[in-house]
Amino acid sequence: MARMRIYTLCLLPLLLTSGLAQDSTVALKVDATDAPGRLFHVQMKMPAQSGPLTLLYPKWIPGEHMPVGPITNLVGLKFIAAGRPVTWRRDDVNMYAFHLDVPQGASSLDIAFDYLSISDDKYFSGSGSSVTSELAVLNWNQVVLYPQGSDPDRIQYQATLKLPPGWRYGTALPVARESGNEVEFQPTSLTRLIDSPISTGRHYRTLDLGNDGGVEHYIHIAADSERALEASPD
User: Fold this and answer.
1) Which helix (H) or strand (E) segment is 229 a member of?
2) 175: which strand partners?
3) Is residue 70 classed as helix, strand or coil in its secondary structure?
4) pLDDT higher than threshold 70 for residue 12
């Protein structure tokens, strides 16, 4: 009887070749002080290693049934490494992919862009806009890039949000600290970040629904006026 040899091929995680350092945290800062004008300013600091790197903008959004990530609303994209601009090119086929080379000696990549919260959609969705001069809903998938090949359950993001003066907010993300109108959240996976939108506004109210089995329940409400927040206990 002939012997059968079985070979096992071990595939290393793509994170090793994505250009992103392993077990690292991406710093994400979103300046929403111009939210009343439908404009968000984004800065990211991504640990990286020298070599080719492809970054992606979220294309498939949880809860959507088609690739509707609002890539056309991303403007002014810039990359800097070791204090110098890094040239990049868009993929010839996938408009959600950006290719660049991290230079030798660089240990991180600084990313900056603006997000225009405008949409022709008549229905609100994770890709659409929900911003007025008095309130905003921020979906994190609108303001992030991530390395191609990375595991969204493993890659960590440390998000910070700067609010317009006098605006309050609500989210399921655990808060690390607050200072003035700036909120720093605890590091979390990209999966959880995108699944934890933020509502914020000048006219804001939080209703405490009590404790159920050790879990606190709340309803956060943002409106275009104080009068719109009025609601009877019923």
Assistant:
1) helix 226-229
2) 185
3) coil
4) no
* Residue 100, helix vs strand vs coil: strand
Q: State the DSSP string of 126-194.
A: TTS--B-SSEEEE-GGGG--EETT--TTT-EEEEEEEPPTT-EEE-SSPEEEEETTEEEEPPEEHHHHH
Q: 62 pLDDT exceeds 90? A: no
Taking the C-alpha atoms of residue 22 and residue 132, their distance in angstroms, rounded to an integer, is 39
With contact defined as beta carbons under 8 Å apart, do 194 and 141 qualify? yes
Q: pLDDT class for 7, splitting at 50, 70, 90? A: very low
Q: Is the pLDDT of residue 133 over 80?
A: yes
Give the contacts of 44 (CB within 8 A, at least 6 positions apart).
26, 27, 28, 29, 110, 111, 112, 144, 145
How far apart CA 24 and CA 171 sit, in angstroms, is 24
d(CA 129, CA 114): 15
User: Mind listing the pLDDT tens digit for each residue in 160-192?
Assistant: 999 999 999 999 999 999 999 999 999 999 999
Q: How far apart are CA 204 and CA 179, in angstroms?
A: 19
